[in-house]
Amino acid sequence: MKAAFLVGGAVGYVLGTRAGRQQFDKIRSKAQELWEDPRVQDGISDVEHRASDLVREKGPEIKEKVTGAVKSASEQVRGGKDQDSGTNGTASSSTTGSGTV
């Protein structure tokens, strides 16, 4: 979060300044130093590991939810078949009109 704030501040400063290329090069150099700082790289590595762990942990759950959502959407596109197992794809009694879907 802090790194993103610093990068955003640096970009805003560069875009807003009239100091020209020299100031831009200074900021770019400082940003490069910050990026190469071992503490920053360790933080990035920690985030990558936590993200990988989260994907491994939650991946199957997310896969099931997405699969269910796709099946549901697919059924709705095909006319609601299997939505209400007691109707065999026909209009329910609450449907008004000619009885066709």
UniProtKB/TrEMBL annotation:
Chain intervals for the UniProt region annotation (Disordered): 45-101
Listed Basic and acidic residues bias regions: 45-66
Compositional bias segments (type: Low complexity): 85-101
Protein name as catalogued: YtxH domain-containing protein
Organism: Actinotalea soli
Upper classification of the organism: Bacteria, Bacillati, Actinomycetota, Actinomycetes, Micrococcales
